[in-house]
């Protein structure tokens, strides 16, 4: 499906990938990983021809249909959502055209048209043509679009929802090879979980760049890692990759050490005896052996990020901060009400729920930035609250470097510790020295998170802290939060983070907040999961606005034709069965009797199958 032959990528003259060879076979689900800035997006852009290669060649299977979802994809359409997401379903339109042509041939009585129509109908059925509306509704519902939004014009949605429209359009296109760059950006936890399950079962090939550990563990069966300007490949999901990579690096280190010992032994002999006439022959032999050695590369010494260490939580009251019968919102608009709970020392509370239900509103209320509309906020004695939100990155000063800015906020913290914190969060050493105005949005977010992480607090309120962090930085944050003794509230859509960090889970649904200890599987279930899907099915059955009535009439006509064809087949099959009954009765020896019985059994099974299909189609006509 995809092959890289000695591919080099060096945008701006700085090599990201050197002489990379890679094969992606049909049906493989590949996760492309690596630290930020290693060239993952550049490689995807090169595959689709948006980025020139600086050496080697990229081969795609001739005629392959390629789907491409860049990070900032938007639908760019004014059409209704339903029409836009179904606009690239070439597989469906081709099968529909084939079926229509077969029907016209049958209507004209062309020779062989009945078989042609039967074959076209079967291909259409097997590909899901009769369930296409259900498929579209399932994808839209899975990505968070309720039925009331399916006819809404695309250009009325925000950028995050436009990304979802573009993702739905790609999924429904069913390309031969899909390239997805951070598809979980802008998705809430429910949509992320649905996407992981959907991608897991698709038959087509895809390469996905993602920092979502849940998706990389559930949906992929191969990993490609860009590290040290090389592309390393592994079989298995992300968790398997982490173990296998460690094993490979350990094995490489052992082989390198043994080889270095052998090289040193040979060099010592050559140096000691090379000038002696009596040993000259042996020294030349050792030199030849040394020259023949295929050198093993030194193992990477930067295999791990610096450890992220949060300062020890200062003493404070057990009940650090809480809300009492609070109604929360903006202005007079209540988003969530009846909120009563305390965030206690040692508690790590993950707040879950779809976008827009009030998770960030709850965090801002706890932080004291948003007074409750009703009820009250309670702050424990000596509580020192640290807050991280995405907008902190936008408010950073432009002139100082990230290192200088964090040092200014934490003047007593040694520079080495600040560098280690920035590094643990994935900010490269050279980026830490650049003016903040020159950093990307993700790099600025890491600076803002580092500024919080180096200062002592006994309460941490974190709104999407893993956005812009690669998988290894997320793992470093998980370890740090586990070791932290203060109180933590996490607003996140990262399921892997929740499962490994949370001691409690809170959910916001239908304007109410509920909380329980521990993490349960149903915490990740969508709210009212069947509502949108069932609503659309009712619309389809009633001939609603999303269904083309003329197409339904054509489908009913195809069903009638298939019933007529089945009736002819049933008559022929029953006649064949009767002849086999006669042959079985007339058989005079064991072999003939056995052959006739086997043939009759197969013929009877065919008759049963034809009747079953006939009854199903008859019921469909009656129901519909």
* Spatial gap, N to C terminus: 42 Å
Q: What's the mean pLDDT score?
A: 84
Find the structural class using helix and strand composition: alpha/beta
What is the number of E strands?
Answer: 18
CATH class category of the largest domain: Alpha Beta
Strand content: 15-25%
Radius of gyration from the CA trace? 32 Å
CATH architecture of the largest domain: 3-Layer(aba) Sandwich
What would you note in describing this structure?
- This protein is an alpha/beta fold.
- It folds into 3 domains: 182 residues, P-loop containing nucleotide triphosphate hydrolases (Rossmann fold, 3-Layer(aba) Sandwich); 206 residues, Rossmann fold (3-Layer(aba) Sandwich), CATH 3.40.50; 75 residues.
- 46% of the residues lie in helices and 18% in strands.
- Strands 5-6-7-3-8-9 form a 6-stranded mixed β-sheet, with helices on both faces. It has a 6-stranded mixed β-sheet with strand order 14-15-16-12-17-18, with helices on both faces. Strands 2-1-4 form a 3-stranded antiparallel β-sheet, covered by helices on one side.
- Helix 3 runs antiparallel to helix 4 and helix 5 runs antiparallel to helix 6.
Layout of strands and helices, then pairs:
Blueprint: E1 2-9, E2 17-24, E3 29-33, H1 40-47, E4 55-60, E5 66-69, H2 81-85, H3 90-107, H4 113-126, H5 132-142, H6 159-173, E6 177-181, H7 189-201, E7 205-209, H8 213-218, E8 222-227, E9 230-235, H9 238-273, H10 280-292, E10 319-330, E11 333-344, E12 348-352, H11 359-367, E13 374-379, E14 385-388, H12 402-409, H13 415-424, H14 429-433, H15 441-453, E15 459-463, H16 471-483, E16 487-491, H17 495-501, E17 504-509, E18 512-517, H18 531-541, H19 549-586, H20 590-623
Parallel strand pairs: 3-7, 3-8, 5-6, 6-7, 12-16, 12-17, 14-15, 15-16
Antiparallel strand pairs: 1-2, 1-4, 8-9, 10-11, 10-13, 17-18
Helix pairs in contact: 3-4, 5-6, 5-18, 9-10, 12-13, 12-15, 19-20
């Amino acid at each position: 499906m995809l092959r890289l032959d000695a591919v080099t990528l060096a945008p701006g003259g700085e090599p990201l990938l050197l002489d990379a060879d890679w094969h992606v076979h049909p049906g493989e689900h590949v996760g492309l990983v690596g630290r930020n800035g290693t060239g993952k997006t550049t490689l995807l852009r090169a595959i689709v021809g948006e980025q020139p290669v600086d050496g080697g060649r990229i081969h795609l299977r001739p005629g392959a249909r390629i789907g491409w979802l860049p990070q900032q994809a938007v639908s760019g359409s004014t059409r209704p959502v339903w029409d836009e997401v179904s606009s690239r379903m070439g597989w469906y339109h081709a099968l529909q055209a084939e079926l229509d042509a077969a029907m016209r041939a049958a209507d004209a009585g062309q020779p062989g048209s009945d078989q042609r129509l039967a074959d076209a109908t079967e291909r259409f059925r097997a590909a899901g043509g009769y369930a296409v509306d259900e498929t579209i509704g399932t994808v839209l519902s899975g990505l968070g679009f309720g039925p009331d939004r399916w006819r809404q014009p695309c250009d009325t949605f925000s950028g995050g929802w436009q990304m979802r429209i573009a993702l739905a359009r790609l999924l429904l296109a069913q390309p031969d090879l899909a390239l997805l760059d951070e598809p979980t950006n802008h998705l809430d936890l429910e949509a992320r979980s649905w996407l992981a399950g959907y991608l897991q079962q698709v038959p087509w090939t895809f390469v996905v760049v993602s920092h979502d550990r849940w998706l990389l563990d559930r949906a992929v069966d191969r990993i490609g890692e860009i590290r040290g300007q090389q592309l390393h490949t592994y079989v298995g999901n992300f968790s398997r990759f982490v173990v296998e990579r460690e094993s490979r690096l350990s094995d490489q280190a052992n082989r390198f050490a043994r080889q270095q010992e052998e090289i040193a032994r040979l060099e010592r002999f050559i140096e000691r005896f090379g000038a002696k006439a009596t040993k000259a022959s042996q020294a030349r032999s050792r030199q030849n052996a040394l020259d023949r050695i295929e050198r093993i590369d030194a193992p990477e010494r930067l295999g791990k990020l610096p450890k992220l260490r949060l300062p020890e939580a200062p003493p404070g009251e057990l009940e650090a901060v809480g809300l009492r019968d609070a109604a929360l919102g903006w202005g007079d608009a209540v988003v969530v009400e009846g909120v009563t709970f305390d965030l206690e020392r040692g508690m790590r509370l993950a707040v879950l729920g779809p976008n827009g239900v009030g998770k960030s509103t709850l965090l801002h209320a706890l932080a004291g930035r948003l007074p409750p509309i009703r009820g009250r906020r309670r702050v424990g004695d000596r509580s020192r609250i640290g807050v991280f939100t995405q907008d902190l990155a936008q408010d950073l000063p432009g002139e100082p470097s990230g290192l200088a800015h964090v040092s200014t906020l934490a003047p007593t913290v040694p520079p080495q510790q600040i560098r280690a914190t920035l590094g643990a969060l994935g900010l490269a050493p050279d980026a830490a020295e650049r003016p903040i105005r020159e950093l990307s949005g993700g790099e600025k977010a890491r600076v803002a998170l580092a500024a919080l992480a180096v200062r002592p607090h006994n309460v941490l309120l974190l709104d999407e802290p893993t956005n812009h962090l690669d998988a290894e930085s997320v793992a470093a944050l998980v370890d740090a939060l586990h070791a932290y003794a203060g109180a933590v509230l996490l607003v996140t859509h990262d399921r892997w983070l929740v499962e490994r960090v949370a001691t409690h889970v809170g959910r916001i649904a239908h304007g109410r907040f509920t909380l329980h200890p521990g993490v349960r599987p149903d915490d990740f279930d969508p709210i009212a999961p069947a509502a949108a899907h069932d609503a659309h099915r009712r619309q389809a059955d009633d001939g609603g606005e999303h269904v083309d009535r003329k197409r339904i009439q054509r489908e009913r006509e195809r069903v009638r034709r298939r019933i007529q064809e089945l009736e002819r087949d049933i008559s022929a099959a029953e006649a064949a069965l009767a002849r086999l009954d006669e042959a079985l009765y007339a058989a005079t020896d064991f072999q003939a009797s056995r052959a006739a019985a086997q043939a009759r059994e197969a013929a009877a099974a065919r008759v049963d199958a034809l009747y079953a299909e006939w009854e199903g189609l008859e019921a469909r006509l009656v129901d519909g």
